[in-house]
C-alpha cells in the first residue's frame, strides 16, 4: 500500500540572514505554521548566511541523508588577526603584521588544503563531549582534547585580495569547519587569520539561488508554504 504524504511533508530552502541560529529558524517555522516536526540539514553559525534546508513533517526522516551532502561556501578571511573562535565573533588573541600577499600566493597556499585530511573541531563549536556542546565549555575557559575528523576539500580558491582581506570559494564534505581552514591558513602564512564572513551557496543538488529569504517566509500563510514545499518523494530522489 502506497504511503500517503501531506502537502507539508518535505523541505523548504531558506536563505538564512546573519544573526539567528539554525535552531532559531527551526523554532520560528514551527511556531509560525504549527508544524510539530521541523528540522534542519546542516548547522550554519549565527553570523553565517545562505542556504539552510528545513525539513518538515515526514521530511525529517531524510535529514541525515541530506545533511551528509557536500557543501559549497563563499566568504572572506581577514589576515593578521587570530581569534579564539577562528571567526569574527570571537575574542582577538593575536595580531601580527601581514606580509605582502597576492591572489596567486594565497591560492598556492590554499592548494595544500585539497584532498582528504584530519581536521580537529574548534573549541567554540556545537560538537558535544559527554552531551555538552564544546562552546559551553569554552565559555568557562575549559579546553579539552577533541577527536580529529576526516574531511575532504574538493576545491579552495581565492578570487580577490585587498590587504588584509581575501575573498574565497570552497567546496567540501559535510562537517568541514571553514573557520578552522581560515585559522590554519593564517598559521601557515605566519600572520594568523580568521573567517570574517561566510555564505553557504549549495548543499548537494540544492542551491541558494532557489532559496527564500527567512524574513519573507515569516510573512507566509500555510497555503503559501504548501506551494513552496519540495515534496517528500521528490526530496528522497534528490
What does this molecule look like?
The protein has 238 residues and is an alpha+beta fold. It folds into two domains: 10-68 and 205-236, Pseudouridine synthase (2-Layer Sandwich), CATH 3.30.2350; 71-202, Pseudouridine synthase (2-Layer Sandwich). The chain has eight helices and 15 strands. The strands form three sheets. Strands 1, 2, 3, 4, 7, 10, 11, 12, 13, 14 and 15 form an eleven-stranded mixed sheet that branches. The protein has a two-stranded antiparallel sheet with strand order 5-6. The protein is globular, with a radius of gyration of 19 Å.
Count the E strands. Answer: 15
Quaternary structure classification: single chain
CATH superfamily of the largest domain: Pseudouridine synthase
Our count of domains comes out at 2
Which class do the helix and strand fractions yield?
Answer: alpha+beta
The overall pLDDT average reads 91
In whole angstroms, the N-to-C terminal distance is: 23 Å
Q: Report the β-strand fraction as a percent range.
A: 25-35%
The Cα radius of gyration reads 19 Å
CATH uppermost class of the largest domain: Alpha Beta
Number of helices: 8
Largest pleated sheet? 11 strands, mixed
CATH topology title of the largest domain: Pseudouridine synthase
- Please give the share of residues in helix: 10-25%
- CATH arch. level architecture of the largest domain: 2-Layer Sandwich
Give the SSE order as H and E letters: EHEEHEEEHEEEHEEHEEEHHEH
From the spread of the alpha carbons, the general shape counts as globular
Low-confidence stretches: none
